[in-house]
Amino acid sequence: MAQALGRLLYQKGEPVVAVASRSYHRAKAASAFIGPAVEPLVYVQLPSRARRVLIAVPDDAVTAVAQTLVEGGMKDGAVIHTCGARGLEAVAPLADQGISCAALHPLQTIASPEQGVTTLPGCAFALTGTGEAAAWGAHIIALLGGQTLSIQSRNKPMYHAAAVMASNYIVALIEAATMLMRAGGIEREQALRALAPMIRASADNALCLGPLNALTGPIQRGDIQTVAAHLEALRAVPLPGAVLQLYRAAGLQTLELAKERGLSAALATELENLLKGGNN
Question: What CATH superfamily classification does 2-152 receive?
């Protein structure tokens, strides 16, 4: 995240003067990616080089980095962190010094700095805070052609849970589907290739038509025997326990959509009992 945002801001003409890490070696590699004039540093050196600092580190490290900046002599300016689940409390050591603070979380999945440079422009950004730091965050969003989501600190965990379900859990669902394909005798790479068109079409349909109108499949149709056959097959092979639980949990959520689509109360009740393990 830090490297992708740094490079994008550098390309937009923003004064990116330095990048810091716990390791000078890692900071040097990051500075080379961001731009030729970017100086590699360790965290404690940042306050002497810049009055605006963007903290893009793992969630649990944000407060420790904020404390290190205070120890490095930061007493004014603006600080933004990119943690999705935490608000301004994550940078309390800086706020306590009177430094303007905000949180700016890109609603995007980034597997590499190179991918981030491509996918961050145009995405939504959750912005929390006021004053100079929030204004700086809004400026960054505008530079990247993004959409602003104004989120209060107390709502960040719920917002981030939604982001995790829409990204990380989709990856986990795809892995679970691949495992079931393998249990059915199809090797991993072939399974991924075969599933890909359906995964993309399902996502596109849900986003374009809305989940309610996009829903298809046995639960939507009330096909109890099909769902029972799935559960029997999943119980019959040595899969991690979470896969069966995942099928049941996702099925129960799907059932809520099916009921909205008009599935009869009798079928819905039978499917609910089946998915909850009423028939083992």
Answer: NAD(P)-binding Rossmann-like Domain (3.40.50.720)
**8 A C-beta contact, residue 49 and residue 17:** yes
CA gap 99, 77 in Å, rounded: 6
Q: Count Cβ atoms below 10 Å from residue 35 Cβ, excluding itself.
A: 15
Q: How many CB atoms lie within 10 A of CB 144?
A: 18
Ordered per-residue pLDDT tens for the chain, 280 residues? 999 999 999 999 999 999 999 899 999 999 999 999 899 999 999 999 999 999 999 999 999 999 999 999 999 999 999 999 999 999 999 999 999 999 999 999 999 999 999 999 999 999 999 999 999 999 999 999 999 999 999 999 999 999 999 999 999 999 999 999 999 999 999 999 999 999 999 999 999 999 999 999 999 999 999 999 999 999 998 888 799 999 999 999 999 999 999 999 999 999 999 999 854 5
Q: Where are the domains of the chain?
A: 2-152, 166-275
Among residues 167, 160, 169, 165, the alpha carbon closest in space to that of 59 is found at: 160
